[in-house]
Amino acid sequence: MYNYLSILFSFLCIFLYFRPLEGYFEYNSGRALIVIFYKSKNLSGFLPRRPHQKRRPEF
């Protein structure tokens, strides 16, 4: 039962990450929720990581 709830919550996090509810959740709050959840559960390998763009120094 607990495993089912965690999977359901993870899908909710993914939904909020890609399409947050209008006016209810902001994009940053959805991302913070995911980071807290996956760091506490050690399931960071479950989601595909987005490649970080290297910042080029501007001259």
How much is the radius of gyration in Å?
A: 14 Å
Quickly count the helices: 2
Shape descriptor:
elongated
How widely separated are the two ends?
A: 56 Å
The main pleated sheet reads as: none
Structural class: mainly alpha
Query: What's the helical proportion of residues?
Result: 40-55%
Can you give a write-up of this model?
The chain is mostly helical and 59 residues long. It has a domain of 40 residues. The protein contains 2 helices and no strands. The termini are far apart. The mean pLDDT is 63.
SSE topology sketch:
Elements (H helix, E strand, L loop, with lengths): L1 H17 L8 H15 L18
Helix pairs in contact: 1-2
Short description:
This protein is mostly helical. The protein has helices at residues 2-18, 27-41.
Give structural attributes:
2 helices, single chain, 0% strand, 54% helix, 59 residues, mainly alpha
